[in-house]
Amino acid sequence: MSFKKTLLATVACAMTFIGGAAAADTLRIGVEGAYPPFSMKEADGTLSGFDIDIALALCAQLERECELVEQEWDGMIPALQARKYDAIVASMSITEDRKKQVDFTAKYYDTPSRFIAREGAEFDMTVEGTNGVKIGVLRGTTLQCHVEKAFPDADLRLYNTQEDVFADLVAGRLDMQLNNTLQAIDGFLNTPQGEGFAFLGENVDDPECLGEGTGIAVRKGDPLAGELTAAIEAIRADGTYAAINDKYFDVDIYGK
């Protein structure tokens, strides 16, 4: 049995746990489904990816039924506040600005971000040097914050999905794009679509915008944040996290 099927089976067992998971105990998780390898749609329409497996593992750890709710990125926090779901597991960076709207668990991974452009492209990465340069990022992300702050005169293009960012980069409608390095490698550079493209410059260093790692968001004051933090620690300790990590990545993405 595959690791993913084992996780699903574990969650199914939790659903029938004696004295446990009734309908009211369903944990509704907001996910995106368009950010490979963290979340993506398989040919049969099922969701997969690192975030998806982590969500299922946390539900299993808490012995609660897991309901995955798809949501476009820029509506993630509003939908959480509107109680469309109980938590967000969608590679959301922990930032001071977001902490004003939601509570976060401890991080469950921490990876850098970096620009991508055509191989051989040269840009002066200053305010003056990026004047009018077409830069694409996912709407409502920490990456948007960084570009707006560091390159205010750039021609910033905002997208609802990372797949659309890459499509416009390939089509020449963008000069460069910025996103998570691991997602960029596995979701673009190591695919036929990414042929002829490469990283531009070094990892972006901007904790004010990019935050302090990736966490799970819940509504303000919800004790679920503490429960999920304990569950993250538990799956780190029992090897479940490592098994999921190694399924998608060659390095430990948890960070220091």
TrEMBL record:
GO terms for cellular component: cell envelope; membrane. Residues 26-252 form the Solute-binding protein family 3/N-terminal domain. InterPro entries: Iontro_rcpt_C (IPR001320), SBP_3_CS (IPR018313), Solute-binding_3/MltF_N (IPR001638). Belongs to the bacterial solute-binding protein 3 family. It comes from the Bacteria. Pfam families: SBP_bac_3. Keywords: Plasmid, Signal. Residues 26-251 form the Ionotropic glutamate receptor C-terminal domain. Its main location: other. GO terms for molecular function: ligand-gated monoatomic ion channel activity. It is found in: Cell envelope. This is Transporter substrate-binding domain-containing protein. Residues 1-23 form the signal peptide. It comes from Yoonia rhodophyticola.
